[in-house]
Amino acid sequence: MEALDRVVKPKTKRAKRFLEKREPKLKENTKNAMLIKGGNANLTVTEVLKDIYAVKKPFAVLYKKKNITRPFEDQTSLEFFSKKSDCSLFLFGSHNKKRPNNLIIGRMFDYHVLDMIELGIEKFVSLKDVKNSKCPEGTKPMLIFAGDMFDVNEEYRRLKSLLIDFFRGPSVPNIRLAGLEYVLHFTAVDGKIYMRSYKVLLKKSGCKIPRIELEEMGPSLDLVMRRTHLASDDLYKLSLKQPKALKPKKKKNISHDVFGTTYGRIHMQKQDLSKLQTRKMKGLKKRPAEKSAEDGGVSPKKSKSAS
Amino acid sequence: MAAVRVEEVLAAAEEQEAEKRRSVTVEKELELEFDLGNLLALDRNPPPAAGLRGAGPRREALLRALARDNAQLLVARLWELPAERAGGAGGPLVARLPEPAFRLPREKPPPRPRPPTRWEQFARLKGIRRRKRTSLVWDEQAKEWRRRWGYRRAGGDPARAWLAEVPEGADPQEDQFARLRREKRERVARNELNRLRNLARAHRAGTGTAAPAAPLHPTGHQSREELGRVARVARVSTASLGRFQPRLPKEPAEPPSRSGGRKRRFEPLLGNLAAERSRQLELLRDMGSKRPVLDITRAVNKQLRQEEAEAAAAKGKKQSQRGKRGRRQQRAGRSAKKSGARRQQQQRPVGSGTGGGGGRRKKA
């Protein structure tokens, strides 16, 4: 396999840019997701994949053809797809008698499968079934996780991390407050996970903070957790490792005290106090007579003695 | 009476404020956890399981109410962030998000720093720094600014050069154009060779440190270290851990070291008396001889080179701290204020007093 990724020298600038986009970087690109259909995907599963693609555009690729693979048995074809399309998240949908309406959500690290969780779809309401207005594509959603299961159970915790990774979208420094339109709400209750999407309506309230009203929109799924394939602890820790260069640099010579005052420290060179420039006061200026008297009793040129 | 009315008015105003606030406040048992960089809210309160059991519109309504409460809290937090108007006075209100706090795994491992090339090592040692070149050069013949290289370059098109002078010591019958072409080809080939060598070095360094247990390449591209490592592992993978494996004719007999040669081994105190005696006599002989054990010139050269590198590094750091203005001032200062007496004072302080002048001229 290493013979396949021999060092390829790019012959054009475009190829060079393409390769540079894919190589490991300090600050990474937004993760892309690939949505794949299994060998026998039925209508429900196809609709789910299409709706999730609509939510995750443009950071997703939807494959149209069916791929006969079993991710839990053999992960090589998934890894091959991930390498080809440079996607590190995947959603694989299939259906058979034993596992009806199956959805495998997973992520990759260095083009190898890190975590995979199999979920069963119990109920699905698609985007076209809900006849409300939708929000524009590419909106960064607000994510809310409700339920203590997401903290208590290890598998649910990984699922929470996976879902955040999946639906997070690009990392932005600023956000337009009026553009917060989309909310994805996950509730874990009774061994089931309810995913609901709402459109946010900001209503006037008396104070600065607006009152929120929610309108049902978009895909809503009732999921049940089936099998899981989680990464071992040390591999997971390795994938979480951030390079040191990304750590926020501590500003030196600045300190704060209890009251909130900021103190700074300046380092200066030693000052020559004899050459210090102080205020000039004309009255104190040395007259020539005084200067020569200081110099050692030499008589001044113009003596002002009375004749 | 007026006082009573004032109190009434104040109470009414307070109630109105509270009324307004009530529409945006939400009561929760446990506080939510927020990660505003990801627009994330985590609610730890156990949801009302009884209400959510029965399917149907009641469940939807309950879920929606729960979602509304949580979303209200999240939006309240987001509205508290420092916000400004983007794009002037009329632009949209934009809030500055903090860094995302929730740790998510990376897509690819962090990039490994590649080892420096031969030139980079030499430049670091000598203190040579990159000079930024201007992209345009003044062309005297065309009387305009032209590129340094590429389409319509400053020196004229090299393919159209119609004159190639015969240099002084060269054979007059030799074809100068052919010579120029051949030399260019040789230069390009040499550059390419060096580039590939640097790449190979980087690749070797990368695989050596990252994957020590990688399996052997099936065909070709088997480096010497890889073969040795794999042979060693194969030898030890027998039932008796390689103790009775026959060795090749020229392979040295190694005692089995489980730590792979990392630990120091010391001779036993009362072992080989003859060896100890010979070692002590050799030591005395070396102490008594007049020949110096240390090669002074080599040591001095090494020291000088180290100091040069350190000075270059320190100067580089200081200059980068001072910035462009500092560099300009420094250069101007140096060129302007040079005089005979000053020059002697400003000479670089040589570290080692003894071998400074002499050691520099001789090379080990």
From TrEMBL, chain A:
Pfam families: Brix. Residues 270-307 are annotated as: Disordered. GO terms for molecular function: 5S rRNA binding. It is found in: Nucleus, Nucleolus. Residues 277-286 have a biased composition (Basic residues). PROSITE patterns: BRIX. Keywords: Nucleus. Residues 31-234 form the Brix domain. Its main location: nucleus. InterPro entries: Brix (IPR007109), Rpf2 (IPR039770). GO terms for biological process: maturation of LSU-rRNA from tricistronic rRNA transcript (SSU-rRNA, 5.8S rRNA, LSU-rRNA); protein localization to nucleolus; regulation of signal transduction by p53 class mediator; ribosomal large subunit assembly. Belongs to the RPF2 family. This is Ribosome production factor 2 homolog. It comes from Aquila chrysaetos chrysaetos. The lineage of its organism: Eukaryota, Metazoa, Chordata, Craniata, Vertebrata. The gene is RPF2.
Automatic annotation (TrEMBL), chain B:
One of its GO terms (molecular function) is 5S rRNA binding. InterPro entries: Ribosom_reg. Keywords: Nucleus, Ribosome biogenesis. It is found in: Nucleus. Residues 206-221 have a biased composition (Low complexity). One of its GO terms (cellular component) is preribosome, large subunit precursor. One of its GO terms (biological process) is protein localization to nucleolus. Residues 206-226, 240-271, 305-364 are annotated as: Disordered. Residues 315-341 have a biased composition (Basic residues). The keyword rRNA-binding does not apply. Belongs to the RRS1 family. PANTHER family: RIBOSOME BIOGENESIS REGULATORY PROTEIN, RIBOSOME BIOGENESIS REGULATORY PROTEIN HOMOLOG. Involved in ribosomal large subunit assembly. This is Ribosome biogenesis regulatory protein. It comes from Aquila chrysaetos chrysaetos. The lineage of its organism: Eukaryota, Metazoa, Chordata, Craniata, Vertebrata.
